[in-house]
Amino acid sequence: MVLVDITNIESTLPTTILGHNFSAPFFIAPCARGGYAHPDAELNFVKGAAYGDILYMASILGTKTIEEIAAARANSSQVLFQQVYLSDNITETQVLFQQIEKLGSKAIVLTVDSAADGNRHRAVRYGVGSADSSYSYLTWDLYKKLSNMTSLPIIPKGIQTVDDARLAVKNGAKAIYLSNHGGRQLDTTPSSLEVALEIYEEEPSIFQQIEVYADGGIRYGADALKLLALGVKAVGLGRPFMLSNVYGVDGVKKVIDITKHEIAIDAANLGVGDLKKIGPEYVNWKSVNAWFS
Which residues form the FMN hydroxy acid dehydrogenase domain (predicted)? Predict the structure, then answer.
């Protein structure tokens, strides 16, 4: 659209995620081993998120411990979410949940697309990954049991079909997270954009019933806008922040500033004067929707 007043677009970037206020509709996605890039590892993500007033979802497999990550917050009001993988020991899970609550995290992000290890042959060849055959018990019945073990909302991460999104609503999830694990768990799985398109085509009310987040391949402002236009509440960036961490907290801050600027500029050029009012009419979703015919 053209001839639209877009001069106040930057003021419309702030959003809420599960009721918490943030300056923009994107967050630092949970990524393991931040220490590969910088000795301060995930601490830079915490500090960068505080600077940019955005959400950081910390990985349970971080270089730093969850205690160190929580201690790095700018103040007690800084909001962090904690991503987890679970063992089959329910007692260990209960202890972990209690620890996460005590440390002040505001939500638990449960990775559900890793019931088995991915076939990462090159990773195992270099001793930096797994290609074995361990299996985890993950079901919606277990999800309901886990939800009764904590006062925090549990966000299933790794939703890849509209049917799973429907089940998440049915089982009381307050939010879902579209992700294919960076494409590393199972070859040819759909991207988060394709899943968002499927949900929009088959059950668009899901975007109103619960909050939907998404990650995977988001590099530019236009990437984020496509998902936001379909109804996604906020998008996660992983690799850009992991790579920026080579420069420490300054690199993390730079990515935040660039991403905010790109979202605003691209929205303006799209003719969106208020990011809260972006909708599917701003993307030609029929031309790229594999489920549409």
Answer: 1-288
